[in-house]
Specification:
With about 200 residues, the protein is mainly alpha-helical. About 55% of the residues lie in helices and about 0% in strands. About 45% of the residues are buried. Pfam families: DUF6931 (PF22011).
């Protein structure tokens, strides 16, 4: 263990493979680790193997709902590059700061009004499905697709890779370290690019 993924206190102390299975996700990189290996141990193994996309996938599954949405929103801000954020991103951010029926309804409205080319609808979708339900109101009685919120957060983070330069490893490290900071209780903001 390198220590890079120690003290991820907001991530459940469950085997990484169990979290992935519950979200209907799997890793492309095979690691010589027991099925009981925790998220930090698997992230260390993936880092050593250069499995950056798998690291993003695992973090999207392992982060709790609200933290996952915030991570997606930060990636969404990367994609906006200082421009006015679309309503979908703004609604998802509002839900993170004040989760509840009112902000969840605003997320659903933003999704309904979003044009097809709004890639940041993924942020709103992550918020809508964050608690494992299809949304608020009567939709709260129905389960969201397994791993739906994680897939949305993963998607927006994969798109944000290009915002951090042409080197895949360096770009992924920014997003991965951001997620690790959030998993430790930080804001994920101000995570510097990693050296070498």
């Amino acid at each position: 263990m390198t220590g890079r993924f120690d003290e991820l206190t907001k991530i459940p102390a469950e085997p990484a493979m169990r979290l992935l299975a519950g979200a209907n996700a799997r890793l492309a990189v095979r690691l010589p680790l027991p099925a009981t290996a925790g998220v930090g141990q698997v992230l260390d193994g993936l880092a050593a193997a250069g499995g950056y996309v798998d690291m993003l996938r695992l973090l999207s599954v392992a982060l709790p709902g609200r933290e996952r949405v915030w991570w997606a929103c930060l990636a969404g801000r990367d994609l906006c590059a200082g421009a006015e954020p679309p309503r979908t991103l703004a609604a998802a951010e509002a839900w993170v700061f004040r989760p509840g029926e009112e902000t969840l309804a605003a997320v659903a409205q933003a999704l309904e009004a979003a044009p097809p080319e709004d890639d940041l609808s993924l942020c709103a979708l992550a918020a809508l499905y964050a608690d494992g339900r299809l949304g608020g109101g009567h939709l709260a009685e129905m389960a969201a697709p397994p791993g739906g919120a994680a897939a949305a957060a993963f998607g927006v983070n994969v798109m944000a890779l290009e915002c951090h330069g042409p080197d895949l490893a360096a770009a992924a490290d920014v997003l991965i370290d951001r997620a690790a900071d959030i998993a430790r209780g930080g804001s994920g903001r101000g995570v510097p690019a990693r050296e070498g």
